Amino acid sequence: MAVAYNQRTHRCGELRKAHVGQTVTLAGWVNTSRDHGGMTFVDLRDHTGITQLRFTPDKSTAHAAARTLHNEDVIAVTGQVVSRGEWTNPKIATGEIEVEVTEIDVLSRCDPLPFQINDELDVGEDLLLKYRFLHLRRPEMQGIFRLRNTVAKAIREYFHEHGFVEIETPFLTKSTPEGARDYLVPSRVRPGTFYALPQSPQLFKQLFMIAGFDRYAQIVRCFRDEDLRLDRQPEFTQLDMEMAFVQREDVMNVVEGCVKRIFKDAMGLDIPLPLPRMTEHEAMERFGIDRPDTRFGLELRDVTELVRGLDFNVFRDAIDAGGVVKCIVAGGEKLTRKVTDGLTEELRGMGGAGLPLTKVAQGAAGIEFQTGIAKFFQPIAAKLCQAVGAKPGDTVFFMPGKYADVCKYLHHIRTRVAGILGIIPENQWNLLWIIDFPLLTWDEEEKRWASTHHPFTAPLDEDLHMLETDPGKVRDKAYDLVLNGTEMAGGSIRIHRKDVQSQVFRILGISDEEAKEKFEFLLDALRFGAPPHGGIAFGLDRWVMKLANANSLRDVIAFPKTQRAVCPLTNAPSTVSKAQLDELFLTIKPLPK
RNA sequence: GGGGCCGUAGCUCAAUUGGUUAGAGUACCGGCUUGUCACGCCGGUGGUUGCGGGUUCGAAUCCCGUCGGCCUCGCCA
User: Fold this and answer.
1) For A139-268+536-562, CATH number?
2) What are the Cα distances from residue A43, in Å, to A143, A405, A441?
3) A296-421 homologous superfamily
4) Which helix (H) or strand (E) holds A33?
5) pLDDT at A376 (0 to 100)
6) What predicted TM-score, i.e. pTM, was given to this entire model?
7) Which chain B nucleotides are covered by protein, judged by CB under 7 A?
8) Whole-number Å distance, CA A220 to C1' B68?
9) Domain A5-108 has CATH 3.90.1150.10
């Protein structure tokens, strides 16, 4: 029986008691069916919800067809909306009515499914990705991607309303030194040469400013060929934005307005402005990381001076080598020996030596340390507890070593302990700006300076004079936006003077020849009247992940890659034919054994 | 490249810790069923325990290797 599926009168989540008596046409997927031999029920689902269909033997054709249905068959039906009376189902929005079907059209049959759509069982993620189109049918996934649309729309509207122009930038572009590994695309027309997919449209948006567009914003894909993580995919989406004739404050103000808009449109929340700010130095001191989660305490305490001179080799060696000793104080009975041993193991896995710790107790003669490395501390127990605010029952985790290592390990411990203690508040959105980063970071392995952000970040004017003499001391005009411990956006005021840009390249070890080869277009542009400018990029995927409370970036990308950068749905990447390689003058080396 | 967790019917899991023919729910097939809504009831199909090797009288279980998935360090301007 043909039903005009192109003339649906309603969606499956729409019908209410007020519609009783109307004749309606619905189409969708069979969520479940319940065959009673006589009366048969089918729950019909589309992205708006579920409507119960009732089939009775007096409509014998439709009834017979209904009894053959399976989950996820696609059907269209026409029938009358009737009240369910005493059989109302309060669990669903349409539960007061059902549709008494007179005609059914089975549009498409569904083979047995690799996993069920209509339950909430956690299926293996590799299978979900292989059949991503089925996973996306699930209501929670529909919700995530509609939220993603809301966020993207809010951002786009906001920037358009504020005079920003959206212009596309090339995907086939030039490989640049510094930064992440590039995805390369071989050129057929010029064999032996390669395009790179952009890590971000950074240079193009600067050229837009030099071109006089004044305000540019684009939602754009970016590509980085680095190892994947929970929150890192090889291709991801940014809101990329740039403004001319601005200082740091101007960009941050515009961004704050956008953040407010995102929370309003996507979550219905009013975020108070301005957002708090913290220097990178303070963040590292207090939290050991430049993207601190400020929803809980457990801050790092520096005890280097207090423990100096203690007869404890582990600390003394660290201090003698120019390092520091810091600690975290945490309370609660959940920090059992088993738990702390587990944390020690985790640090070893990260390359750490161990996790010296002790418990604070109330002894006969006052406060004392009781376990672990207690004996070394006894001389300064009371003083130390007072300095770091430790009370009986607390555990004190110490970390001696190089400053950067101490920060890394204690940040890990802080986050893990907070999770174990269950003290991280949910439904709290701690946004803050991190500013005044060091312009350059010393790369110990390569023995050279590297940009903390990127080579186009402008130094603070008052630090410019140290660029040659003491590059490590120079702070920059960058700003990172952090939400609950995740970097959500990062940007800076850019260098708009050719001499400063050349100077920075030189300090980074990029020779004049290399700079000319890789960045001639930028240096050229800076010669021809570049306005002061700056901007920022938001990680759209991360925003959606946070706002949707998703477990992984994969959950908010329609067709994501696995950890080995494979798409289980398409099986990309894959080999190509010899003819394709020949056309590009490429040969594949044999794989090493 | 390093560290860790995992891999058993299509799917989610179990298997008394090395012991008989590897079970259950669900899905699928057949039958019954007129108020269900995770409908119910009866019956049935379905397994190279990821793969390869080893130890053992005997391996899903122990060992080695390998493949795949996830988390993580390095890496990610």
Assistant:
1) 3.30.930.10
2) 20, 57, 60
3) GAD-like domain (3.30.1360.30)
4) strand A23-35
5) 85
6) 0.94
7) 1-4, 10-13, 26-29, 32-40, 68-77
8) 32
9) no
